[in-house]
């Protein structure tokens, strides 16, 4: 039996920085590609970062993988990523780090998704 048959979700964190590798996308049953915030925080003004994000999102989708952007702190960046087709976002715009009891309340209130503007 394969890991994806068991509904196990595997994500690559900090994609595009550090030790992440394209080889992981090819050899492992990846479900989520978490694009490093070093590109996200330069949006929307940095054309190079925008091109890298667009390429990473497109690559993920062509491989059947969802793309998540890390470090989303403004609605402007959130909307920009939505326009690129990014599937998910994580960052201070959605919520700052919370103690466990506050997180549980937040999660139940929004069903685990940032829904104020419809989500990505």
UniProtKB/TrEMBL annotation:
Coiled coil stretches, renumbered: none
GO molecular function, one term: cyclic-guanylate-specific phosphodiesterase activity
Domain (EAL) ranges: 1-111
Source organism, top-level taxon: Bacteria
InterPro entries, alphabetized: Cyclic-di-GMP_PDE-like, EAL_dom, EAL_sf
Name listed for the protein in its UniProt record: EAL domain-containing protein
Species this protein is from: Marinospirillum alkaliphilum DSM 21637
Lineage: Bacteria, Pseudomonadati, Pseudomonadota, Gammaproteobacteria, Oceanospirillales
